[in-house]
Amino acid sequence: MRMKNTHSLKLAKLALALGILSFLSFPALAVKIEGKPIEMYTKKIGEVTHWLPEEVTVTQGERVTFIVKHEMGGKYNFHGFAIPDLHIAETVKEHETKTIPVTINLKPGTYEIRCQFHFPAHVSSKLIVLPAADGVKSDKKSATSPTTN
Description:
This protein is of the alpha/beta class. The chain has two domains: 1-30; 31-130, Immunoglobulin-like (Sandwich), CATH 2.60.40. It is 16% helix and 40% strand. The protein has one helix spanning 2-25; strands at 36-45, 48-52, 55-59, 63-70, 78-83, 88-93, 96-103, 109-113, 125-130. The strands form three sheets. The protein has a four-stranded mixed beta sheet, with no helix packed on it. Strands 3-9-8 form a three-stranded mixed beta sheet, with no helix packed on it. Strands 5-6 form a two-stranded antiparallel sheet. It is flat and about 65 Å long.
């Protein structure tokens, strides 16, 4: 009888350990990602803070989730993440990750991703919206003309 209880106890401990490890190994699974995930993060380049990547390309009408991280440290323990034309303005604290699901309801063009608190001191990123392949239209106006580089 004692051997059976010891065996059951070992199995229970193993199951608990595996459960904890799987939770710690896959914390992103606890966050629901809608559509295409787009990771954005802050980085100091020289003396200037940037939102990276420098350009993000999406399609008109597409559903995306911005995964926004501020891991930089330094004198600011928070940054803003804003896409004014999509009415997004979030605060991201140091060592925090925010998920921001959104449908890209903008006309094709180039839009700004920036820190609403430290603008224009920090370098913005570009959100490039391409036309929808299936002819989906948007009611929003383009913030700027598409850039040609």
